[in-house]
Write a structure and sequence with these properties.
25% helix; 138 residues; three-stranded antiparallel beta sheet; single chain; binds zinc ion; alpha+beta
Amino acid sequence: MKSYREVLEMNIDKRRQLVNITPRVEQALQKSGIREGLCLVNAMNITASVFINDDESGLHSDYEKWLEKLAPEKPYNQYAHNGYEDNADAHLKRTIMGREVVVAVTNGKLDFGTWEQIFYGEFDGKRTKRALIKIIGE
Ligand code: ZN
C-alpha cells in the first residue's frame, strides 16, 4: 500500500470565507500516483472546517446567514470562551460544518457524487492556517 501526505497552507484575509480546494486536492492525488484508495482532507485548526457541497454562490451566502443565526459572531461577551480570544463563534461554526471529508479514489480520480466539491471553511481568518491531505491506496 502507498501513502501520500501533503499540507495545504491557507491564507484568508477575511474572518470568514469558503474556498473550493478541489483543484489542490486533485493535484495532490496526481502527485501521489495512487489509483485506487481513499483520500482524507481535514482542517488542522479548530476554527476551520473541511466539508463537501455545491460550489454555488447562493448556497454559500445561505451558509453565512445560517451559521450567524446559530452562532453569531457578536456580541463577543455572549460566550464563556471569549475573553483572551474572540473566536467562540468560530469554534461552534467549525463543529457544525465538520472537521474532515473522505473521498473514494477510483481509477486515479476523486469519485464524487453529482456537484460535489471540497471546501475549506474559514471562520476565524486573517492568519495562516493549514489543511492536511492524506491519501492511501495503491
Ligand atoms: Zn478560541
